[in-house]
Write a structure and sequence with these properties.
CATH architecture of one domain: 3 Solenoid
Radius of gyration: 20 Å
Shape: elongated
CATH class of one domain: Mainly Beta
Strand order of the largest sheet: 3-5-7-9-11
């Protein structure tokens, strides 16, 4: 409590809470979410395996201990997302933005990422965009007639 100069007591303001809905322990396996704004959503211990999610704003998503294996994410805004202890095995991410996102202890085994915004993305301190550009240049030298995608 904070005392006023007049001797009365003034209540402390309530603690700031993160905006957005919270899903905890939800089973969203095989769910289909389309054209939804879930900005600031907090998802903990959810099962979202084999879900189909498209045209959804998941910016500032807080995803912990979630099972997303086999999920398909298309045209998704995942900027400033925090993913920790998540299972994304065999997931497909197409036309996604991961700018400013943090992924820690995430299983990305057999993940397919296509047409993604990779600006600023690093893995173990290595710029992903630069590593891909180097790999594309090497491939182009080996097969001169092959077209390469640039992102």
């Amino acid at each position: 409590m904070v005392k006023r100069a007049t001797g009365g007591k003034k209540k402390r303001p309530p603690a700031r809470r993160r905006a957005g809905p919270k899903w905890e322990g939800e089973n969203l396996a095989r769910a289909e979410l389309t054209d939804v704004d879930l900005t600031g959503l907090r998802v903990h211990d959810a099962k979202v395996a084999n879900a189909r999610i498209s045209d959804v704003d998941l910016s500032r998503l807080d995803l912990q201990n979630a099972k997303l294996s086999g999920a398909r994410l298309a045209d998704i805004n995942l900027s400033r997302v925090r993913l920790s202890n998540a299972d994304l095995r065999r997931a497909r991410l197409e036309d996604v933005t991961l700018a400013g996102s943090t992924l820690s202890n995430v299983d990305l085994t057999d993940v397919h990422i296509e047409d993604a915004e990779l600006k600023g993305m690093t893995i173990d301190g290595i710029s992903v965009a630069e590593a891909l550009e180097t790999a594309r240049t090497r491939r182009q030298r080996k097969t001169p007639g092959r077209r390469t995608r640039r992102r």
